[in-house]
Request: fold
Amino acid sequence: MEKDKILGVVLGILYYYVLSKIFSFLMLFEFIGGTISGFSKILFFICYIVLPIVILAMPVIIKFKYNKKFYKAILDSIVFVLLYISIWITICSCISVYFETFSTYKWSNENWHRFRGDMVEDLEERYDLKGMTKDEIHELLGKEDGYSEEDNAISYYIGEAINYYIYFDENDVVIYARQLA
Reply:
């Protein structure tokens, strides 16, 4: 009996220590990448507040609900941790894949400007911007975020101090486009 208590304490300490490190790592990843928080505040709340609290409470819930020893409840809870991590990875991957495809709606959505950088490659593959008029660019990409009169260029914010510049000739026809920091 004493051995079960010691095992429960040791596994409990390891469980909560490792989980705190996992949650810290995921939050750090989120602050650097901002995938989930940039996409939806509600999804961020679920992934980083609700689910971690449930996972932290899981050993106690399992212990009392199913009348298991604490160390067995922790072992059962590890399944939920692995499920949480796989769901988190799936959500981040799906968001990234979603924003790799350009659409006027996604580009123009003010909440998702930080994902424009992911769409640029698809935008350039699908549309030959060179030769388009300024009105056609506005129809495709919406109102620009900046304008340079001396270069006759408009710019769109595409992430971390990077802009996508579109340069026009004197007739407001696109000469070329490029990303600049």
User: Anything to note?
Assistant: The beta strands are 146-148, 153-159, 162-168, 174-180.
